[in-house]
Amino acid sequence: MQWRSIVVALVVLRLTVSCLLWLAFGLGPSWGFNFPLNFNFNLHKIELFKQDDGESAKANSWSQRLHGHGDAQCRTSCASKEDSPKKSYLSLFEGDRDEYDRRYSSFPDTLKIKMKGMAKDMFYFGYDNYMKYAFPEDELNPIDCQGRGPDVLNPSNININDVLGNYSLTLIDTLDTLLVLGNVSEFHRAVKLVIDTVSFDKDSTVQVFEANIRILGSLISAHILLTDPKHPFGNVGLEDYDNELLHLAHDLAVRLLPAFENTSTGIPYPRVNLKSGVPPDSINETCTAGAGSLLVEFGILSRLIGDSTFEWVARRAVRALWKLRSNETGLLGNVVNIQTGQWVSKQSGLGAGMDSFYEYLLKSYILFGEKEDYRMFQASYESIQNHLRRGRESCNEGEGDPPLYVNVNMFNGQIMNTWIDSLQAFFPGLLVLNGDVEEAICLHAFYYAIWKRFGALPERYNWQLQAPDVLFYPLRPELVESTYLLYQATKNPFYLHVGMDILESLEKNSVDSLRHSLLCDEDRGE
């Protein structure tokens, strides 16, 4: 079946380290989808390396388009001086074109080997320390080298409790990465550990969305890798394996099903207790992405076990959200009441709370071939282009700023603020999957320019002030996935260099700093 042959490539993309490894080597599958892709482009058309001349923005610049909607949309960030020069984000690339042409025109094999070694070292630094100091807890607290699970003393700490559920999250989430690294023996050992030690019969309240993408998706992908007769990573079958990972995935999904019960709209509750179901004090509000990004995993599970229940409830949630879109703009909001169907947050954008809703529409179509999914995606994409996109009409030529996708009111398309968030960096990759490679190239340059400037993507970036609004970076993989997909679409070595830049930034700002601060072996007297 089509979905079975494609699913391995998609689920593996979820992990940042996996994507970085592929980028370092230029490896990965060639893409063949149900719709034509045009991969012809000329990198020189994108003036990545042209310094801005300091002239005022043209008539179709972001700033003038913003002001054209009236002062009401300018309240959050109009402190920037109107008479100050408006520089394109492309000016963040320093140096002349010849220098960059020379640098990005090739990616030598010796450099690929070096990057492969660095990526492996970074992965095993995290994995080995987790197994040594944290397993079977969910994750390693890297500062004190101790394991960490849910915050039982503070149930309202949803940043921790939405994700951690006392089910060895890190081990499950790294199963497929071990195969990408070619470590079949450790993959087998990890699978056996999961089978022997993991149970979901826990008094843990977790977010349905997080449990789905991290745990359910990882179990399903590892099961497929073990049993797929096409052997995408070689014959990695485990002797005496009896579908135990699939049984665990089924058990978890059953425990998530109460979220879909007793809702007037069919949109699920955001959280469930794995032992007792929906908590009595559960809120009736959920975000569009959280409720509408379950179809890939639930749909694959239904097909693997021959039970349509899981795909049915996930599709019902997507359809319910779809019915609530604005009649005027076709846009959806960010947060909805699952009982009344009223929008609690009317902001529409491509970032937090909405991002994966669009992603799952297209990827579900690629996996399952259901035309309904692509019709919804096409209609969403048209609304996004009509109401969220700012900048010049053509990505690579013409007057004004290159394209930018902003946050707007779902009912009238007016700009609500002047920030974007790092989750939006997934969108260039989705553009590639939809065949819009030229637009993907240009938009990707925006996020990469920010990365080059700060060594990471700020959680929120104010595009009018050209400065971060929220200063931290929680190791999000979206820009990596977009870079990977653009390299696969174009085979241009520029994107291998982008991958190297990202990898070296992570090594410098995350791994290397931890190596100097961890209270591990020598500090603990071991």
UniProtKB/TrEMBL annotation:
Belongs to the glycosyl hydrolase 47 family. One of its GO terms (biological process) is carbohydrate metabolic process. It comes from Salmo trutta. It comes from the Eukaryota. It holds the Pfam family Glyco_hydro_47. It is a single-pass type II membrane protein. Extracts misfolded glycoproteins, but not glycoproteins undergoing productive folding, from the calnexin cycle. It is directly involved in endoplasmic reticulum-associated degradation (ERAD) and targets misfolded glycoproteins for degradation in an N-glycan-independent manner, probably by forming a complex with SEL1L. It has low mannosidase activity, catalyzing mannose trimming from Man8GlcNAc2 to Man7GlcNAc2. GO terms for molecular function: calcium ion binding; mannosyl-oligosaccharide 1,2-alpha-mannosidase activity. This is alpha-1,2-Mannosidase. Keywords: Endoplasmic reticulum, Glycoprotein, Glycosidase, Hydrolase, Membrane, Signal-anchor, Transmembrane, Transmembrane helix, Unfolded protein response. The active site is at residues 210, 355, 459, 478. Its main location: endoplasmic reticulum. Its EC number is 3.2.1.-.
